[in-house]
Structures are given as structure tokens and as C-alpha cells.
Amino acid sequence: xxxxxxxxxxxxxxxTVVALANAGHHPIIIxxxxxxxxxxxGRLESLCKGKPSFHEADCNDRDKxxxxxEKEQPEGIIHFAAYKAVGESVREPLKYYRNNxxxxxxxxxxxxxxxxxxxVFSSSCTVYGVPDELPVTETSPVKKAQSPYGFTxxxxxxxxxxxxxxxxxxxxxVILRYFNPIGAHPSGxxxxxxxxxxxxxxxxxxxxxxxIREQLTIFGKDYETPDGTAIRDYIHVMDLAEAxxxxxxxxxxxxxxxxxxxxxxGAGSGSSVKEVVETFEDVSGLKLNYRYGxxxxxxxxxxxxxADKALKILGWAVQRKLSDALRDAWNWQQxxxxxxx
Length: 341
Ligand code: UD1
What we know:
Elements: E1 2-6, H1 11-22, E2 26-31, H2 39-47, E3 53-56, H3 62-72, E4 76-79, H4 86-91, H5 93-113, E5 118-124, H6 148-165, E6 172-178, E7 180-182, H7 201-209, E8 216-219, E9 231-232, E10 234-236, H8 237-253, E11 259-265, E12 271-272, H9 273-284, E13 290-293, H10 308-314, H11 322-337
Parallel strand pairs: 1-2, 1-4, 2-3, 4-5, 5-6, 6-11, 7-10, 8-13
Antiparallel strand pairs: 9-12
Helix pairs in contact: 1-8, 5-6, 7-11, 9-11
The chain binds uridine-diphosphate-N-acetylglucosamine.
The site of uridine-diphosphate-N-acetylglucosamine has 22 residues, from helix 7 and strand 8.
């Protein structure tokens, strides 16, 4: 199938482009590099079977997007293009609402205009807030959003549920709730490109190990967890990318049924910040410079997925371990150092 991938030069988008191409699909990358770099597209061409299409465009630019859809005639859309920094969203909420909600509305309207049957939406475990029970399942309650970023994901999901309820609705969607995507392609050719100081743990670790940051601060050591540090469900970005291929294939196989289906995408187990640091030290052979600091406002003590539904319906489960993801993230960081930027 011809699949439009908005944000296809971004972290999860780029890995999904590779997974789609290598599964026999034709990815149509749409990205304006606001959170990536043009060299990623060249790298994608070398990693993909067949040459993916590429268009430089802002998803908020309705006319330009319409022109791309007209030319490319996609049969499915995977919509990644969005901002994702929790802290920044608190400081600049309008930027988040405009980009994350505005671009989604554009893409959904164009989906209808061009009669594109399949849609996959990037959501996040952030919709669960502080969960009452662990692990969280897809039916665990959606809690009041802790940040404008989190709210944009809840709103995005709600828009898709509302479309499903609309009587005339025949399109089908999958909502994928990502836990904590980390790692990089094992080739070291693509990975995460944080702008400025990273907010996320793993890029902060690899940049500290590379000497770009002086010291990692572990936010909080007094959580009610076995070692006092917060617990997350880290998932290798290649596993996550492959889940998108399963989702789009599943939508196409279930041709007769309309609807919106939600899936958790996680490993199904949690790792503490301390465990991540220690595993990184193991795989890199380095001692990481870190200290403990206060809890980060808005952080939940622990969250991890029950990903049984994805296994049962999509036939998907993670194949890679935390150590694989950290090794690949470190390999990517080292390759990045060699780039003349
Ligand atoms: C957050 C969002 C998630 C979003 C993701 C992408 C929430 C609850 N989670 O994930 O929805 O998709 O960002 O940006 O809104 N940590 C440190 N030191 C650091 C950085 C992080 O100790 O320098 C700790 C954090 O306190 C946390 C863990 O590492 O316990 C993971 O943090 P991070 O990588 O930022 O991801 P989340 O906050 O879990």
C-alpha cells in the first residue's frame, strides 16, 4: 500500500518508514524538518527497499497537503507529525494546540476528501495520567491531562472516537498509545535528534556519555518503587515501528468493519531510571556521571503497559530488550558525533 507518513523524518516516523518499506509498502514521507534534519531522508533512502517519496510540508498547510495527496494517492495515513515535549507544552500551550490539533484536523479532513480508508494515530500512555492499577490496559480510565501536550493526545483520540460515532463514518482508525520509545536503528544511520537540551531520559544519558552534557540528574529517589526511582515501560523504536506496519495491515485485512481500535504499545514490564542507567553502563562499558535531584513536576511514579491486546489482535509483541535499545541508542549517538553538522 501507499502510506502517507506525516512526521516521517522524525524519530518514530523515520523508523516506521523503514519498517513499512521493508514490509513491501511504499512510504510517502511528509515532514518540514522542524524536529529533524534533511540528511535523515537520504539515510532513509539507503535503508529502505525501494525509494520512498518525500515532500517537505507543514501539515497545517492545507493546500500544500491537498496537492501532495492528489499527486501521491495514499491508501493509508500514519499521522506522527506533532510536538511532544511536556515541559515546553506547559510554557507554550498555543503552539501545541495549533500544531498537534490543527494538523490532525487538516489530515482527517483530507482523508475524507480523498477517500483514504486507513488511519493510524500516534497517542501516548500519558492519557492514563497517574494510573490506579498497573499494568494499564486499554480500558483503564483516561485521567485529567497533566499538560497541554497530554491534552492534545486526549483530544486527538476523542476526535477519532467522535468520527467513529458519526453515522456516515466508514473510515477505520487505529490509536496507538506508545509507552517510552527509545533506541535507534541498529545501523546507527537514523535515531532521535533532540533539539537543544533533551527532556527525555535516554538522549540525556547518551549525550552525557558523549560529553555533550556534564551530568545526568535522576529526578527523584523517594518514589514508592523498589529502588526509589520512577518506573517506565521502555520500548525499542524498531519494535514500535513494526507495530505500525501490523496496524496498517490489520486495518486493510478487516476491510468490512468500520471503527476505531486502541492499542497499548509497550514491553509489558517496567524499568526504573536507575536500572536504565545501570544497563546503559553495562552495554557501553562507561561510568555515567549522574546525581539525584528532586522529582520532576508532573511525573508519575510508575507506569507500564499490559500489551496483550496488541498481541491478540495485531499479533505483535516486543522482540528487543532494554539492553538492545540502549546499545543502539549509544551507537547512534556515537555516529552522530562524526557528522559535520
Ligand atoms: C513523557 C511523557 C510521554 C511522552 C514522552 C515523550 C508523561 C507522563 N509522559 O514521558 O507521554 O510521550 O515524554 O516526550 O507526560 N528522567 C530523569 N532525568 C532526566 C530525564 C528523565 O531522571 O534528565 C526520568 C523521568 O523523571 C522519568 C523517566 O526518566 O521518570 C522517563 O522520562 P522521559 O524520558 O522524559 O519520559 P516520560 O516523562 O516518561
